[in-house]
Amino acid sequence: MSVTPNELTDQVALVTGASSGIGEATAEALAANGASVALAARREDDLEALADRIESEGGDALVVPTDVTDEDQVENMIETTHEELGRLDILVNNAGVMLLERVDEASPENFRQMAEVNLLGLMNATHAALPIMQEQGEGHIVNLSSVAGRKAIPGSSAYNATKFGVNGFTEALRQEVTGEDAIRTTLIEPGAVDTELPEHIPSDDQQDGIQGMMESMAPLTGEDIARSILYAVTQPAHVDVNEILIRPTEQEL
Rounded CA gap, 212 and 197, in Å? Predict the structure, then answer.
């Protein structure tokens, strides 16, 4: 089934990390273009508020509270979306955390959390969604990475590791599901985006550095990234936009 630009009627999309930032903006953009949207994150109240906004504007939204670090919850998220909405055409793996620290000062628990959220959660959601898309004979998996998936910098080692992992996983997946499966993959690599992620950075030095960078330029917004995702998923079926690197105009790194 081909998709005409700016039209996702009869499509079902699932967005993780939908309670704020890029995920929230992406869910709204997909719903505004006709998709039924399943909203996944830990914060159920925020998801309910988002669903209310989408439905008040004539859209269709399903709230699926999920902690992507829990494999059983991830499988339930996929199953519930499929059972309640009837399909699964677009999976946006957006959930992520950015706990920047130098290795010699870092908490191993923060290593674990980033690996489980940024990489394993994404991999498990993809694994659970693929059989549905393969049976449909089509689907689109969008994975959120980062400029940090291309360039390593001091103080970002563990975060870099998870995002480099997302990049490698997505490219290998693309090669596995192209052809007969007709499943498309898109890797989104944002630069500096104005979201709540920097608020959770445990290192004061790293948080100050990120804050200073954000104040020195006009950062991207969640809506900017949502437009990039919408562009990728509304291309005709024979067009697979594999990768989008998007930075603020003033960002050098």
Answer: 15
Among the listed residues 14, 142, 158, 159, the single catalytic one is 159
Cα separation, 90 vs 68, in Å, equals 17
Nearest-10 Cα torsion for 143, 144, 146, 152: -50
Residues 3-38, buried b or exposed e (16+ Cβ, 10 A)? beeeebeebbbbbbbbbbbbbbbbbbbbbbbbbbbb
Residue 231 is a catalytic residue: no
Is the whole-model pTM more than 0.85?
yes
12-209+221-246 in CATH: which number?
3.40.50.720
Residue spans of the domains in the chain: they are 12-209+221-246
Q: Each residue of 112-122: pLDDT tens digit?
A: 999 999 999 99
Question: pLDDT tens digits for 96-147?
Answer: 999 999 999 999 999 999 999 999 999 999 999 999 999 999 999 999 999 9
